[in-house]
Amino acid sequence: MHIMSAGKKSGIEAPPESPIAFRACSNGEFCPKPETALDRTARQAFFSQVEARHRRLGLSRRQFAESACGVMAALFVINQVYGCGNARRGSGGAQAHAGSAGYGVDPTMMEDLDLACEALTGPDFVMDVQVHPATPLNPWRNAPLPSTAEDFIRTLFVDSDTTVACLSGVPGARDLGRDNVEASDYLQELTDKLGKRRLIYHANIDPTRGASELAYMQELAGTYDLSAWKVYPHVGPWRLDDPLVGLPFLEQARQLNVKLIAAHRGIAADSGLFDAPSSPVDLTRAAAQMPDVKFLVYHSGWQSNIDENHAFDPQNTNPGGVDRLIKGVLDAGIGSTGNVYAELGSTWRNLMTSPNEAAHVLGKLLKHLGEDRIIWGTDSVFTGSPQEQIQAFRLFEIPIPFQELYGYPALTSAVKAKILGLNGAALYGIDPEAMRCAIKNDFVERLKLARREDPESVPVPGEKRYGPKDPEEYRRFLRWERG
Q1: The pTM is what?
Q2: Which of 89, 111, 430, 464 could share a disulfide with 425, CB 3.0–4.6 Å?
């Protein structure tokens, strides 16, 4: 962990920004929540921690905020402000009696740089299975997305511990014209710079197109080194277990021997309940019919309008959010060695400041899918560098009262290592040790080393929230998206 330099000063030093945004932005697929009183309290509490501690370390306010101690201060504030029985949406009730989840931050870590660095770093092989290119997307905020391949690489790999990433949704969809050409060129530039070692990718498919799409799949499989097919069954909507749409698509994936399906399930403008278009129940039914095909549930069925501050209730016939995935897996008889995997992109980021909900979501997935079936994803670059998500996850704990009352497994270092990368590597057929050896001295590692020695010599884009950060920005984004 490095300490960023203070830079040039002019006049009064501006209030430092927290290294972890207390309110997550949207990835463009859901409306972000407006700022709450808790968010304002957290921001002020972080400023207070900076003010109280930066001089003791001989650092400016900005230097402290950008150091490992600043990250610890942000996580400490999350514990204090959003923990103690406070879920993001203010529920609690009986759940509050189970204790409070949060991050393993000792106050001394806010003033001991070595101790803070040791806690935040690790030897983990980090594989992010959900990242997005800036092209052909246009910026919808004043802060433009990292639009060059070099900016993308610095944001994703140099400024974080990510080792391997999967670009989601390339090549571009048909009929994009010039945008599709730009997207293909962008992908080629990234591949040329990173090689096939660090970057893999999905192909976007729309099975509702019928026979023409099956032919398009064959064309893509013959042109690109594809790792999976990416689909959006909630759009339309259509179902993966539909004998006229979903099943022919899955059979074609089988025939082409690209037998990994990454399906968006969750995060949609619907009720978020069991029979809603965003529900993963169709995926679990299809998975039961095709055990040789693997299914990656993007977002794990999480829905921003569903409170997750509770355990799974097997008696509930109409569950919402992540519980839809749990019920679907149980109903289909798919266990912890089955062919369904839960992915955490946007889900973890939006739960980071709601510790009890985060503990329930991770606990439910660990209990019912197992520690080998949870896959790391971040939905970057919409949220900037994924490093804050990685660091927070390393410190997160499922408290013993939750384990005892709900039967959740402990979130140990070994389990975290699996989730952060080992599970994804196994799913995509990557040997972590061989990969480490292959990239040991590549240009990304050289940039990382140079940045550790002198952060200003290797600048990275500093925006933490490229996606819409409040309802008004989201409405502007929708107006742009709809032309």
Answers
A1: 0.92
A2: 430
